[in-house]
Design goal:
By secondary structure, the protein is mainly alpha-helical. The protein is built from 20 helices and no strands. The protein has three domains: 184 residues, Growth Hormone, Chain: A; 56 residues; 211 residues, MFS general substrate transporter like domains (Growth Hormone, Chain: A).
Length: 488
């Protein structure tokens, strides 16, 4: 209980003493749900586009491979403006910036759908990237400012589900829309979501801004954005070895060097763009920077590998593969009802270690199945993998902000978004690199089931080792958020 008294009261705790939910608790859930709708629109768009690239290329009169520039421009624009999002939220108000982000994303989606050539499409995707860059960190800031410590776990669970569901349902939905409608509707579906989001934010999310907004740190903005852009583009290129390895290595090296310069500047500047003091908070550092980033790499590699395993390794049709992935989606959904009571009963440290081991074992087990494996066992494995993935994702995202002070929220949310972007691309890059290396070692021209076995086993082993790293957390880590200490 001493821990509860000495942890920073960074998030206002206004929970009513009665059993009924307080006004503040209802407001926190409402804000989190609205932010989750916007996140779902954003993440669905990011995953749905890959299925329609060939049809889009045909429509624009270019090769399908040329359409990848739309993904690259989106990613780079997002990398450039993500570091600026926290400062903008403090300067102009998080609610106002969030409204602008949704409006930009929605209008850009409309422009993507009406694009007549590749140039128009790339320009629209750049605007989409700007909206996306502002949406994610600013949405987290809104949730942090409106949730008490006791409501943070439920609020985080709500804004986490889009990151779990969109990568799974996006390709399936995109394939259906592209096949039975046209690629244009992959972007037009964002319009009603965006309009609903704008109406809900304007009606239910309170405004306000920081009273002492700092001047913009231009050198910090330049170094941070350039370093992040080089690093993300280099990671994205790893999945495409045919583009050449030396440019990829140069981009990664440049990203690391510029990133180091950015960190040095941010530590010395009188008014840094990003306050790095949150990295000294143990719960934030472990769940966001250290073990948390590595485990997110493991988590993000799985949705990339599974569709390939079922289609390339098992020879299933895209529809059959999508049905198998649906079980993975249901596992993610099923864990939502038990995440909060589990963390309250056992605490963050125990759950993240034990569940991390289960999640890693499930990933390794994916490397042991084959086309001859009974379908019921494969589906059961997908459900278990989805359940454990959901639990770990929510625990990591909640613990990250458990001890963050009010003055650190904007920078912490921005840093978290930057590191999660890196882990998403790094997960795909690592998985693709393992597949390619396995194929090269076998001296075979195409991927085979054995390459996927190697990839799942290596990724799972990394997760297994990383799960044990969470043992460095104190037993009562994040106790004010989970409520675990109060029950002991």
């Amino acid at each position: 209980m001493l821990f509860n008294r000495r942890v920073m009261s960074s998030i206002p705790d206004n929970e009513a003493v009665s059993g009924a939910p307080s006004v503040e608790a209802n407001q926190a859930r409402r804000v989190a749900l609205i932010v989750a709708v916007a996140f779902f629109m954003q993440l669905l768009d990011s995953t749905i586009i890959s299925t329609s690239l060939p049809q889009m290329g045909q429509s624009f009169g270019v090769a399908a491979v040329a359409m990848s520039i739309g993904i690259t421009v989106y990613m780079l624009t997002m990398a450039v403006f993500v570091p600026l999002s926290g400062w903008l939220a403090d300067r102009f108000g998080a609610r106002n910036v969030f409204l602008v982000a949704i409006a930009l994303f929605t209008l850009a989606s409309l422009a993507c759908g009406f694009s007549q050539n590749l140039t128009q499409f790339v320009a629209a995707r750049a605007v989409q990237g700007l909206g996306s860059a502002l949406m994610t960190p600013v949405g987290r800031i809104l949730v942090l400012r409106n949730a008490s410590k006791s409501e943070l776990l439920n609020a985080t669970a709500l804004i986490t589900w889009p990151a779990l569901f969109a990568p799974v349902v996006g390709p399936v939905l995109g394939g259906f829309i592209t096949t039975y409608l046209s690629w244009h509707w992959n972007f037009f579906i964002n319009i009603p979501l965006g309009l609903i989001g704008l109406a809900l934010v304007g009606r239910f999310i309170p405004g306000g801004r920081e009273a002492d907004a700092k001047p913009l740190d231009w050198p910090g903005f330049f170094l941070t954005s350039l370093g992040l852009a080089c690093l993300l583009y280099g990671l994205e290129r790893i999945a495409h070895p045919e583009d050449g390895m030396w440019p990829t290595l140069a981009l990664l090296a440049s990203g690391v060097v510029i990133g180091w310069l950015a960190v040095r500047h941010l530590n010395r500047a009188p008014h840094p763009l990003l306050d790095l003091s949150s990295l000294k908070v143990q719960t934030f550092a472990i769940s966001t920077l250290a073990a948390g980033t590595i485990f997110r790499v493991v988590i993000n590699a799985t949705p990339f590998l599974l569709p390939l395993l079922f289609q390339v390794g098992f020879g299933l049709t895209p529809v059959d593969a999508g049905l198998m992935i649906l079980a993975y989606f249901l596992g993610n959904l099923g864990m939502k009802t038990v995440t909060t009571p589990t963390l309250r009963r056992f605490g963050f440290r125990s759950v993240m270690v034990v569940n991390g081991i289960v999640a890693s074992a499930a990933i390794m087990a994916c490397g042991l199945i084959s086309p001859e494996t009974p379908r019921v066992l494969v589906i059961a494995l997908m459900v278990i993998a989805g359940l454990s993935r959901s639990m770990q994702f929510t625990a990591l995202n909640t613990l990250a902000f458990a001890d963050i002070a009010a003055a650190q929220r904007s920078s912490a949310a921005t840093l978290s978004s930057m590191l999660q972007q890196i882990s998403m691309l790094f997960g795909v890059a690592v998985a693709a690199a393992i597949l390619n290396l396995s194929q090269i070692a076998r001296a075979r021209p195409v991927l085979d089931l054995v390459d996927f076995r190697v990839a799942f086993l290596v990724i799972g082993a990394i997760g297994l080792i990383t799960a044990l790293r969470f043992l460095v957390l104190p037993a009562d880590a994040g106790a004010e958020v989970s409520g675990h200490s109060a029950q002991r």
